[in-house]
Design brief:
Length: about 270
């Protein structure tokens, strides 16, 4: 008697999940923004999720011991390095595209613009410049729940507990999750594996930040949602709506001429 009921519930859930996935594919911007809003509402309604998850990694009178494990420290450095390499690589590619376009003739300008814009706006401007420096959420390790001096605050709640480089949202989680942007520009046969690798890397780096007491779970998941929303918006605008205009390159001719003039004038 129980087995048919369980099977019915499972089938209904599977069908519902299929509908949700199909709708998300049709309306990715609405799906990403909606998911971010839903996650935010969840943590605002039940803040004990944040404190409970952080508490899993905290040891009384010993803080967050995983933050002192060499392997996890090396993993954090690796996460930072990957994001830095991507940033410097995109900057170099952008300069090369302007000054010596033939060097990157196989890379469509719209693809480069998409990667640069999504990284600069998502992890760069929104997460690290605006939210982390102005929302003031204290990190778990700095709150009085886990041996620190500051009060716990909710995600999206503006606080004065932290002056800069604060807990909300997670910069490293946003940078690692941004790698999923490559799934939108690689050949279709590579897309699924690119998504798997990017998600696995983002989960690993983000888990590390939770274990260090550097972030709450909401910091991580909301950072993911913000970055995903920026990625799909940039995809719609740059890869779809204005791709032909960007790839035509007419609007870049003036910039390219100025870049070459500066190059020759200052011997760069």
């Amino acid at each position: 008697m129980t087995e048919p009921v369980i099977h019915s519930i499972w089938s209904a859930a599977a069908n519902a999940a299929s509908v949700v996935i199909d709708e998300a594919k049709r309306y990715p911007i609405a799906a990403s923004v909606g998911a971010t809003a839903a996650v935010s509402a969840l943590f605002l309604s039940w803040p004990q999720i944040d404190t409970g998850v952080a508490g899993l990694f905290h040891v009384p009178n010993d803080g967050f011991p995983m933050a002192r494990v060499p392997l996890f420290l090396a993993l954090r450095n690796a996460g930072l390095s990957v994001t830095q390499i991507c940033t410097f690589g995109l900057v170099a590619a952008s300069i090369a595209r302007l000054v010596l376009p033939r060097l990157l003739s196989l890379l469509r300008p719209s693809v480069l613009a998409f990667l640069v814009a999504s990284l600069a706006i998502g992890p760069g401007l929104i997460v690290n410049v605006i939210l982390k420096d102005y929302w003031g959420r204290a990190r778990p390790i700095d709150t009085n729940l886990f041996g620190g001096a500051h009060a716990f605050s909710l995600p999206w709640e503006i606080s004065d507990a932290c002056a800069r480089n604060c807990s909300f949202p997670s910069g490293e989680a946003s940078g690692s999750f941004w790698l999923i942007a490559f799934a939108f520009v690689v050949p279709e046969s590579w897309r699924r594996n690119t998504i798997r690798i990017a998600l696995a890397w983002a989960a690993l780096i983000s888990f590390n930040r939770l274990a260090f007491g550097g972030h709450y779970l909401s910091d991580v998941l909301i950072a993911w949602g913000i970055v995903m929303s920026v990625i799909v918006i940039c995809r719609e605008l740059i890869l779809f709506r204005y791709a032909e205009r960007i790839d035509a390159g007419g609007h870049l001719s003036a910039l390219r001429a100025k870049a070459k003039a500066l190059w020759l004038r200052y011997g760069l």
